[in-house]
Amino acid sequence: MERIGLIGAGRAGTALGAALAAAGHPLVGLTARSRASRERAARLLPHVPVLTAAEVTTRADVVLVAVPDDLIVQVAEALPLNSSQYVVHLSGAHGLKPLQSTQAIPVALHPAMTFPGGAVRLDGVMFTATAPDEARELVERLVKAVGAQVQWVAEEQRAQYHAGLVHGANHLTTLVTQALAVLREAGVADPAATLRPLVTATLDNTLLSGHHALTGPIARGDVDTVAAHLAGLGRIPPTRTASTYAELARATVELAAADGRLDRETAARFEKVLNGEPGERDRTGEAPR
Predict the structure, then answer these.
(1) What is the dihedral of CA 51, 55, 59, 61, to 10 degrees?
(2) Can you tell me the distance from the alpha carbon of 285 to that of 130, in angstroms, rounded to the nearest whole number?
(3) Is the dihedral of CA 140, 142, 145, 146 positive or negative?
(4) Domain spanning 4-156: CATH superfamily
(5) Backbone phi and psi for residue 36, each to the nearest 5 degrees, phi listed first
(6) Count of C-beta atoms within a 10 Å radius of residue 51
């Protein structure tokens, strides 16, 4: 098996290093600059020596550059790599360009997973790779060794791929955090327990069925309800929640209209409400449902 060297002892790097070590790949060394990194390395990779970057590189067949995106070029350029080695970064947004000045065979390998700082099970996780043909066999072998899956994305599609992950995962955290705050403002004693069954069921259904999983007032055409929501959210700080709701509601109206669940007239009424024009309560004289 290839000897693995780890440059950087962040959360993703140490978790992947621990998984590779558990699969039988020898870790010949790692770098760890901060106290937090050294403590993390001692906890997850206690038998791996902490060395200089040059020492790690000269001992390894595969060098994992597990550093923040903005440092990949600088760190990789300083490593004494040769043409018989592989250099692998773990960034989702970048392809091979940050590694182009090195002599080693470059690989961009990104696990679609969150790393909280401890050991992480990688079985079933999808790794997205960009690599030249001569690296493909190695990539597939490393990924399968930790029980994960691999898919291939072209160099020019890396940023778009990563945007999809960020929009679906990081922005989900923002959205749910806002929703918890709104429930708390409404006097709900346990917002998380209230929201959890609905969010988890919706997520599972959406991953299975896409936009066909859509339910709620927009799918039903309840314009008055959405108008009431906007009025209520406008009174809750921070006001960003109201604008987030409105923008996502516009996208939801487009989805519901595109598959025929909303007719043109109802979609236009939603658009007026979302643009701040007189709402359905003003039009009908009745309280929103």
Answers:
(1) 100
(2) 59
(3) negative
(4) NAD(P)-binding Rossmann-like Domain (3.40.50.720)
(5) -60, -40
(6) 18
Tell which residue, 225, 245, 241, has the closest CA to residue 181.
241
**pLDDT < 70 regions, the chain:** 278-289
Please write the tens of the pLDDT for every residue from 142-189. 999 999 999 999 999 999 999 999 999 999 999 999 999 999 999 999
By the 8 A CB rule, do 10 and 29 touch?
no
Q: Smallest Cα–Cα separation from 111: which of 208, 5, 16, 10?
A: 16
Q: How many CA atoms lie within 13 A of 203 on its CB side?
A: 12
How far is residue 154's CA from residue 9's CA, in Å, rounded to a whole number? 28
Q: Which two three-digit tokens encode residue 181?
A: 């705050």
Q: Tell me whether strands 105-111 and 126-130 are parallel, antiparallel or unpaired.
A: antiparallel
Strand order in the sheet with 86-89: 27-30, 4-7, 62-65, 86-89, 105-111, 126-130, 149-152
- For residue range 200-216, list pLDDT tens digits in order: 999 999 999 999 999 99
Q: 């060794």: which residue's tokens?
A: 145
Query: What HEC string does the chain produce?
Result: CCCEEEECCCHHHHHHHHHHHHCCCCEEEECCCCHHHHHHHHHHCCCCCECCHHHHHHHCCEEEECCCHHHHHHHHHCCCCCCCCEEEECCCCCCCHHHCCCCCEEEEEEECCCCCCCCCCCCCCEEEEECCHHHHHHHHHHHHHCCCEEEECCHHHHHHHHHHHHHHCHHHHHHHHHHHHHHHHCCCCCHHHHHHHHHHHHHHHHHHHHHHHCCCHHHHCCHHHHHHHHHHHCCCCCCHHHHHHHHHHHHHHHHHHHCCCCCHHHHHHHHHHHCCCCCHHHHHCCCCC
